[in-house]
Amino acid sequence: MDDCSVARRPGRGTDGPAPEAGAEAGAGVDRAAAERVSRLLSGPSGLGTSAARILDALRTVPPATDAPPLDAPMDGAPAPAAQDPGAPEPDAPAPAAPETALPVLPTLLPSPTRKGGHFSPGYAERAWGDGSFPPLYCPLTARIDDDLALVVNDRLVEWAGEVGIYADQLGRFRDTGFGRLAVLAHPETDDVDPLLLAAKMNAAWWACDDYYADESDLGAVPTELPPRLALVMSAMDPPPDAGRYTAQVEEAVRSDPVLVALRSATGHLKRHAGPSQLMRVLNTTFQMYVSWTAYAAWRHLGLLPPVWRYLAARQHDSFYTSMTLIDIVGGYQLDANLFYEPRVHRAVMQAGTASVIVNDLHSVEREAADDLPDCNVVLLIAEEEGCSVEEAVRTAVAMHNDFVRGFEDSQRELASVPSAELRRFLLGVQSWMAGCLEWHGASDRYK
């Protein structure tokens, strides 16, 4: 499709975009596109609900009338209250706290110090592609450090050579720049090892997608995808020993570079993650694979799903998976009951879905050119609405912007929750969206 080149040839710079970037990219989405977005977003969404129980404290915290900004320093402490003349002496036992009292705030986290700092540079309309389409409303990039990115990427390419993925394409793999993605998406640390962890996990997930699900020239066959994914799960989360049968499983894992990469990356993950963080990553990965099998069935049958059904699957196959690494890379832990609290879950799902629409926008030509085209929201909108690819791009941009504004609203709402870790995590999600857009605009994978 000649008109699928709409999302190509992004520009690359070494500095973060100015807040006004994209102001001249377009006057906005026309009324017809807005109506299509409204119809699409009002249909079935497929969003899951959290199984984790919300902490009692979250039910009792009133909305803040003037919540502190999410990028406010977290290294101070409230001043002690003036001494009440009728209060007990300092050495007297304190009265028992009433059952309805709010929980004590966790120890405030130190503010990281490094190039760029961990802060919110805000949101803006950002130009993308060749600049001819409406801008993407997205957070601005907090840090661009290509020197650090080069170090991480070099170590990642060395690792890829060891595990065997993209063995005959290591030059292209280097130019893809998964190491740069990790540095852009995780500005909270300068530590190469956790950044390398993020780069490995994302590269391994992408390799699984390329070799098993998407790229016909790399051996992706729809009918072989489900059993391959089942073995991926055993490679990442080994089942109990079953004697000689386990030996056969291990032989199969060692013979497949994709499985070797996933197991190796998971091993690196275990050195940084706590038990609940590890299982969060694994279970989210396996959840993502359910959507992959749906895509495989559609490809095998030659079906184009309706947009609402694609979105229902895509929301669980998004960069939400990559975002499960944020606190692990940052060196802290967001409690599982907070991570899975419904409002937090919704916010991170909004961000993950927005970021994966960025991927769809940049992948239109690549995916349309495959012998068995993969599902892409732009191509599906064009088919369903009977419109041009250009019009479908505008609709997808409007949908992305709606998700980002939804996350921004959720972020403000959750600022009243008394958790420094949650504020830090949501700031990390914001940074991930920004870094994702920055990376897609420069990676050779999308040129």
TrEMBL record:
The keyword Lyase applies. Its cofactor is Mg(2+). It holds the Pfam family Terpene_syn_C_2. It comes from the Bacteria. Residues 1-32, 62-99 are annotated as: Disordered. Keywords: Lyase, Magnesium, Metal-binding. The keyword Metal-binding applies. It catalyses: (E)-2-methylgeranyl diphosphate + H2O = 2-methylisoborneol + diphosphate. Belongs to the terpene synthase family. 2-methylisoborneol synthase subfamily. NCBIfam families: f2_encap_cargo2 (NF041167). This is Terpene synthase.
